[in-house]
Amino acid sequence: MSDEDLWRMLRGIADMPYGAGQIAALEQLLRRVDAADDRQLAFVTRMQATTGYIYGGEPAKSFVTFSWCLSEFDGDPQPYHQSHLHQLLWHFKYMVNGLLNFPEVPLDRTYAVLDDMERRYRAGGHSLQAVHKHRFRVADHVGDAEAAAHWYRLWQTTPRDELSDCAGCDPTGQVGYLADTGRDAEAVELAEPVLAGRLNCNEQPQAILTALLLPYLRTGRGEAARDAHREAYRRLRGNLADLWDIGDHVEFCTLTGNEARAVELVERHLDWLDKPPSPAAAMHFAAAAAAALRQAGESTVYRRAAEGRPAAEVSAAALADELAETAAGLAARFDARNGTARQSEWIARRLAVRPSGEHLPLSASVRRRPTGRTADRAERVRPGRGERPTVDLPADAGPDDLLDLADQSWGRHDQATFRAALVAFDERFGSAELPARTSAHRLALRAGERADEEDFDSAVELNRAALKLYREVGEDVPAQVVAGRLGVLLARSDEGTEEGLTLAREAAEALDRSGDARERAGGHVRMATALLQRERWADALAALDRAPADAGGDRHLLARIATYRAHLLEQSDRLDEARAAVDEARQLGRELGVGEVVVTACLAHARMADDPADAVAACDEALEAAPADAELPVRVARARALQSAGRAVDAVDDFVEAVTLCVEQGAEGDAFLRWELANAYQMVGRLAEAAEVAEEAVLGLDRMGAQAEADRCRHLLASVYARLGAVDPALALLGQLAVNLDGPDNLPHRAQVLEEAGGILFDADRDALAGERFAAAAEAYRLGDLPLDELRARRREAYAWLWADDRDTALRAVEVVDGVAAKLAGQTEPSVTYELAMAAEVGARVLTNEGRLDEALDRLAGVPDRLRSIGAFSEAAMAERLTGELLLRLDRPAEAEVLLRRVLGGLPADAQPVRQTAWLLARALDLLDRPAEAAALRAEHDLDEDD
Predict the structure, then answer these.
(1) What's the CA gap between 936 and 14, in Å, rounded?
(2) According to the model, what pLDDT value does residue 261 have?
(3) How far is 239 from 21, CA to CA, in rounded Å?
(4) Gyration radius of the chain over CA positions
């Protein structure tokens, strides 16, 4: 490989994002450079490596490259060294910061570097402002408050120069010191003009926003603190080098009562402790994480896999202890190095952080602060057994009276009276000797309680016991009722299906012979329910049809029948009949005042509504009628209906409320809801919130093992990142997706994400990498036998190599494009016409770049007309502009004038290509010796002759 090739590689690597990928490329290049024996290239590459190591999260490696460059600079000065002197002096600041963060480096070494830095700054006539700043940092690190104050004053009073930190980084350090010394208002005041300006270095504005978290909070600026957290963390979350600052955000979440979000951040970054940028960063993050996990109580957290270790759930308390031990151990090592107790005292305070003050909502997905353990929250939504309900009951009611009341209340959906009657029965008669029939009745109702609580195994055993007792005393009708209920429960499982269906059928037939109209209707409803659970829709409908039409006058049972009928008809795609049944159930529910029936019917109506606005109205009614423990599904349905109705802004609020309810109730599925919420945020342009919630969703879906859904959410998140301009996180996600989708069954999806990655890289002017991604996408499309998609990816690849100025590769790509295009020749579908035309256009551009103008012009023959035939007018104009340019370069200005006038006349006045077309036309007029017309055209379009 020639030196020119190596220099080109270095330039390409310098354009790469900081991180492991760039570091690997730099280290590979260094090996080649050293073998090539080019001293200048070796020096410049190591200068680049020093910066790459610092911002890529491996600062320890920068000590070696910096020392090599400094030794080379001092030992044998060369002319090229002077052009890098400013950068070399700047790197001294990296070294002081870095050396402090490794306890194995003696403090004397840091002081020696500082002294050398000062000597060189003085010798070059530079301000010592940056030197004073870094002496302050050393004093603050070891806990010498008097020295820190001294150096801080010199830092602030010494004039700045070109070696001072940028206008964002210098104030960041000042904000941190003011906050640490209790001067929060000054910190905020200092930062305001800085944030109002333009901050565009690698560390800003995320660093100063992170430094402002506590000053904002302690000065009552809650909204500013929340916004700072969201904006800064969004910028930090993908950078290993920022692990320290991420710890600050974990601590902020803990302080503000956002324990769940704190734990989510810990889970997301926990594996970074296996490869921390420095021991100091690991110490700080571990302490903040331990404090957050201690607030998680008895819950478990997800520890993602490190190399050689499977991912697993671990106790939050146990992990907190482990991390606290790590932090304390590192602090002790720093203190041993420094000869002070500063770091141990500091870490002890971090470990003791607890929520303080009023809760500040931070999450974009949870509206309220959850309280207590998940199980406790679920119990509060649905009161547990043994709790005394507030319902007045007759004091003289006997045991059978209470059980009959409970039975009737259960049928009326009156849970409060149902439970109150049973509690009263147990208190008054639980220890009494009772008739077998009464005991059987109590067993059957206890089975109903367990079924309501979804303890189905217990419900089955209790029903079996009740059935046995009823049969022993010859109570046939109640026995058949219990047998039907037992049949429904057994039909839920594959193992009990046959027994369950038999019990339910025989019970219904027996009640047809001996029961009254209500009992007969109940028997057929139970049979239908058992069949419904096995998804035997037609058989279930037939069972309902056998129930007496008036259900013995039991309107609650009629409402239940109508609800079941609506569901079965919907599943059978008999939508008109289903809607009629829904309307009946909805009306009965309203008349009876049974919220559960109204909610079920309204949600069914919303699902089947043709008009999204009608669906929203049904959800509104359901929301008004919903009991507290039934609000969650209504919120979800309403959010989806609002989205369908084009009211995504309103849908966001319902999705947020649904996620909040899900968390409060300890219900499963919040990760899926967060995914939907992230999409809703994305639809309304709230991209920062979309990214935040999608990250939460991916973490939750991964934790559930739902990889397909997690990958779909990653795809959404990558799109959001790209729209936010977070190119590297978007590419990282798409790269992960490409790996996850490896395999013959996933070729189209793999190709899609590779092509999207190429598009992001191309838009970011990283053209060579874009070409590689497009090529990989095209190959996946080829393997998936998708020639049209392959052609699109191939011609995009050719564009990328053209813009990367890799002429040979661009020409080879055009040859491949021609081969794929030949397979599609003769097809007339608009999509094929478009791609064939655009393939010809890119080929013409590549050939133009090679000076093969006649060949390029031949390729464009007929292309504009084909594009216009399918309505691709802007692309047609683009091809004609290129044709006009080629005609000019081939000394055919008269033809170019005719063509370019037509193009210019067909463009909207505010169209972007107008100026380019006008410039070409003016050039044609010049060549035709019509300077006055050319000048008038340039004046009309505000063009300079040299543009």
Answers:
(1) 45
(2) 87
(3) 12
(4) 37
Of 37-46, 109-118, 369-378, 900-909, where does mean pLDDT reach its minimum? 369-378
pLDDT in tens, 543-562: 999 999 999 999 999 999 99
Q: How many CA atoms lie within 13 A of 430 on its CB side?
A: 9
Per DSSP, 725 falls in state: T
> In the numeric block, which tokens belong to residue 810?
């661009």
pLDDT tens digits for range 575-634? 999 999 999 999 999 999 999 999 999 999 999 999 999 999 999 999 999 988 889 999
Per the omega criterion (within 30 degrees of 0), is the bond before 205 cis?
Answer: yes
Total Cβ atoms within 10 A of residue 84: 17
Give me 293's structure tokens.
């996990």
Q: Provide the angle, in degrees to the nearest 10, between the axes of the packed helices 436-452 and 399-411.
A: 30
The whole-number average pLDDT for the span 480-498 is 94
> CA 174 to CA 191: how far, in whole Å?
9
Specify the residue for token string 């080109």. Answer: 8
Instruction: Enumerate the β-bridge partners of residue 312.
Output: 303
Beta strands 312-315 and 300-303: pairing type? antiparallel
Helix (H, G, I), strand (E, B) or coil at 573: coil
SS3 track for 198-265: CCCCCCCCHHHHHHCHHHHHHCCCHHHHHHHHHHHHHHHCCCHHHHHHHHHHHHHHHHCCCHHHHHHH
Question: Cβ(747)–Cβ(712) under 8 Å?
Answer: no
680 CB contacts (<8 Å, ≥6 apart)? Answer: 639, 643, 648, 651, 652, 655
Burial of 265 (0-12, 13-18, 19+ CB in 10 A): buried
| Torsional sign, CA 781, 787, 788, 792 | positive
Write out the DSSP string of 645-666.
TT-HHHHHHHHHHHHHHHHHHT
* Element housing 301 (H / E): strand 300-303
Neighbours of 301 (CB within 10 A): 22
